[in-house]
Design brief:
heterodimer; A: mainly alpha; ABC transporter involved in vitamin B12 uptake, BtuC; B: 247 residues; Rossmann fold; 6-stranded mixed sheet; 9 helices; globular
Chain lengths: 327, 247
């Protein structure tokens, strides 16, 4: 197990190095080292102040997406459950849109966080209520409910943007969110994001044993001393908070929450205590790489991160879906 | 010692009456068999006894305390409930499933590998659930149920997927276990029930129609009525085992 985690950490380091090199101007490892050792030339300063924080933010958002995905799959007991596909990310985006475009007279940061969280939580419960939390909803029902909720929320978000489009200042931000994109954070933002990942990991680990039991099915989980309904409520709350944090910093990024726990499960098995940190590591590596590609593939333009993850993750999802429907 | 009581237990689903005024008291040590035709309410009764299903009517006591006042963790620590169906969402290994069962009360529990050996599944320890046969699965679940040495065992047709030899072995294990605990088991094999159980409860249409020491049940008129069959039972002289004939 230790060797596997070491391998994952090595992959993350390689991904971060790749992401730091990638961009409109590719930077060699030597140039990166020079920038990090305190050189004051223009290029070093640009790398240090713009590219490296961006790479760090991408990896941290990826870790949140991996954790959120692992919790969602655990609660729904379905390896195809994903915050983006199930509308939770869309719910968070609605909350963020409202916070940004509607003059609520509330302080910006806290109201954005609270509304994103409320949106993610509400959307998840809507999907749960439709597909049925108990007795394990079937894959098709779950995904259809999620797709419907996500489509509804997407339309609502577009409407809000059109209706409030006089406020052109914020519209650009909301638009880039829709397609997923990591903003380069300042130091405070980076520290906050790091703290959120640490808290998210701690909460996810706290859920690990209950998610293991829930995976046995409601009745068997009950037999082993868990109150399944109560636990699921708690897990959805934490999952929604993590998704909201990921959306607030990275927008709507599809499929990472699906792929990361999947690879983690292949690698280290289904027990959630190991699955959580593994999903976070793999999610971090994935988003760091995808964000690097997004910055480097069409210079001088930057394509939205969500396009990259959807183009890579979509086929992965379809493959898994085909295999599951066949069996 | 565990004591289980239910008074005027009633349960319904939609318009269908599943249980109708069930009064039963079980005391350890005993191996109690619950018999009855399909749809008699056996599984519903067991789910109510385990606390998984809240009865619509009546009262349930575990050790003299209303079951509703037991927390999920408290229940798990004294009870081993083995539901009829088990389909995990993830492909756990045998050792992982037994370890998850053990975590509900690790204080008095046996070690996982010791339990695996005891239940004859130690060579399957690292095998994944999807690679197990029906019999291996049943043995794994019994191991996970008994690993904490619960004073109350509730099992819903634990031998349904087993061949004759393993079914016999399973009941022998339960019988031994019930020498110092209370085990209530839903069964279909009348001959095995007669051979192993101390007491048999016969359900029909959600009601208790007979509640007798094992050998007494065969002579209860309700027995043939419940199954809609004529049964002939004979006790062999060699080992006093029952031979059941359908007449």
């Amino acid at each position: 197990m230790k060797a596997r985690f070491a391998a994952m950490a090595a992959i993350l380091v390689a991904a971060v190095v790749f992401a730091a090199m990638a961009g409109q101007d590719w930077a060699s490892p030597q140039r990166l080292l020079r920038a990090m050792s305190g050189a004051t030339d223009m290029e070093s300063r640009l790398l240090l102040l713009w590219r490296l924080p961006r790479v760090a933010a991408a990896a941290l958002v990826g870790a949140l997406l991996g954790l959120g995905g692992a919790i969602f799959q655990g609660v729904f007991r379905n390896p195809l459950a994903e915050p983006y596909l199930l509308g939770a990310s869309g719910g968070a985006a609605i909350g963020a849109t409202i916070a940004l475009l509607v003059p609520l007279g509330l302080p910006g940061g806290p109201s954005l966080a609270a509304l994103s969280f409320a949106g993610a939580w509400g959307a998840t419960w809507l999907v749960l209520a439709v597909s049925g939390l108990h007795g394990r909803p079937d894959t098709a029902g779950l995904l259809l409910a999620g797709v419907a909720v996500a489509a509804m929320l997407g339309a609502l978000r577009s409407f809000l943007m059109l209706a409030l489009s006089d406020d052109t200042v914020n519209l650009q931000v909301v638009l880039s969110w829709t397609l997923g994109g990591i903003q380069t954070p300042d130091l405070t933002g980076l520290l906050l994001l790091t703290a959120l990942v640490a808290a998210g990991l701690a909460l996810a680990l706290w859920l690990a044993h209950g998610l293991d039991l829930l995976g046995l099915g409601d009745e068997q989980a009950f037999a082993f001393g868990l109150d399944p309904a109560r636990f699921a409520r708690r897990a959805v709350l934490i999952g929604a908070a993590i998704v909201a944090a990921a959306v607030a910093f990275g927008g709507l990024v599809a499929f990472v929450g699906l792929i990361a726990p999947h690879i983690a499960r292949w690698w280290i098995g289904p027990r959630h205590r190991a699955l959580m940190p593994a999903s976070a590591l793999i999610g971090a590596a994935l988003v760091a790489i995808c964000d690097g590609i997004a910055r480097a593939i069409l210079p001088p333009a930057e394509i939205p991160l969500g396009l990259v993850t959807a183009l890579i993750g979509g086929p992965f999802f379809l493959l898994l879906l085909a295999r599951r429907l066949k069996s | 010692m565990m004591r289980l009581e239910c008074r005027e237990l009633g349960a319904r689903a939609g318009g269908t009456v599943l249980l109708d005024g069930v009064n039963l008291t079980f005391e350890a040590p005993a191996l109690v068999g619950i018999l009855g035709p399909n749809g008699a309410g056996k599984s519903t009764l067991l789910r109510c006894l385990a606390g998984y299903r809240r009865p619509d009517r009546g009262e349930l006591l575990w050790g003299g305390r209303p079951l509703s006042s037991w927390t999920a963790a408290e229940r798990g620590s004294v009870c081993g409930y083995c539901p009829q169906q088990f389909a995990p969402a993830w492909d756990y290994s045998v050792a992982e499933i037994v370890a998850l069962g053990r975590d509900r009360n690790s204080v008095g529990a046996r070690a996982v590998d010791e339990t695996l050996r005891e239940h004859g599944v130690e060579e399957l320890s690292d095998r994944r659930w999807s690679q197990l046969s029906g019999g291996e699965r049943a043995r794994t679940m019994l191991a996970a149920t008994l690993v904490t040495r619960p004073s109350l065992v509730l099992a819903d047709e634990p031998g349904a997927a087993l061949d004759m030899r393993h079914r016999l072995a399973l009941l022998e294990r339960l019988k031994r276990y019930a020498a110092s605990a209370l085990a209530v088991v839903v069964m279909h094999d009348i001959d095995l029930a007669l051979r192993f159980c101390d007491r048999l409860v016969l359900l029909d249409g959600g009601r208790v129609v007979a509640d007798e020491p094992a050998s007494g049940l065969l002579h209860a008129p309700a027995f043939e009525a419940a199954f809609g069959l004529r049964l002939q039972a004979e006790q062999r002289r060699v080992d006093r085992d029952w031979v059941i004939g359908l007449g």
